[in-house]
Amino acid sequence: MAAPALYRRVLLKVSGEALLGSQPFGIDEAVIDRIAREIGEAVALGVEVGLVVGGGNIFRGMSIAKAGGNRVAGDHMGMLATVMNAIGLHEGLERRGISSRIFSAVPMPTICETFSQQRAERALKRGRVAIFAGGTGNPFFTTDSGAALRAAEMGCDALFKGTNVDGVYSADPKKDPNAVRFDRVSYKEVLSLGLQVMDAAAVALARDNHIPLIVFSIKEPGAFVDVLRGHGRATIIADA
Ligand SMILES: Nc1ncnc2c1ncn2[C@@H]1O[C@H](COP(=O)(O)OP(=O)(O)OP(=O)(O)O)[C@@H](O)[C@H]1O
Ligand SMILES: O=c1ccn([C@@H]2O[C@H](COP(=O)(O)O)[C@@H](O)[C@H]2O)c(=O)[nH]1
Aspartate/glutamate/uridylate kinase domain location, by residue (predicted)? Predict the structure, then answer.
């Protein structure tokens, strides 16, 4: 018999960039379908799943700021990009018969519901996937911070960061071939060593609320469910 999941309720953060798949820009529907299937497997294990998606496949506010533009306007565009990705994932889940609801931090009632902790709680309890769009709803943040915030609000047992690397390294593995991968590292070490895999605000919020951060590769098929069962390749960021 397959191992049960180690968690009752989790927040999965999916990197926007991962949705690119083999494309230079936008959303690869094959990636959406695979991630939807894997989320469905987690739900079938009895895990309640909250979902946050980044926007890096479409737009990041910093790109406008770096070119001398208005950071706040750029961040607004970035938050809208995360709503587009949330709609894409919602459609992918519904196509597979997995019930989900989008709760946006930025009100846009003709497109999706505005975030409400109480309504999201009801959705999760009913076994629906709650997709949290629009990050925190504020500029100068990222969807990592949005994910840590929602994980704390929704009482999640862990925040899974599904990104394009298979864990936390001593340095950025894309830049330093000698970087060493950790199986486990403390919040304090991540912050004091300045490890950039997640933004510091997100790590501090998770630390203050005792939410383990689990970094794994969302590009690796099956990794999410493997890690939920405690035997996948990932780094756990937690108390020392
Ligand atoms: N110490 C480190 N360990 C692991 N990855 C690191 C480290 N330092 C930097 N990185 C980089 O962090 C990146 C993942 O974080 P990033 O915030 O860029 O992506 P994301 O949040 O998954 O994406 P998106 O913005 O598209 O949602 C990886 O691509 C990796 O190269
Ligand atoms: O709370 C938030 C979350 C996100 N943004 C903007 O959106 C983009 C995309 O999010 P990523 O986390 O980088 O994938 C981000 O770069 C910000 O510009 C935001 O302003 N506030």
Answer: 9-217
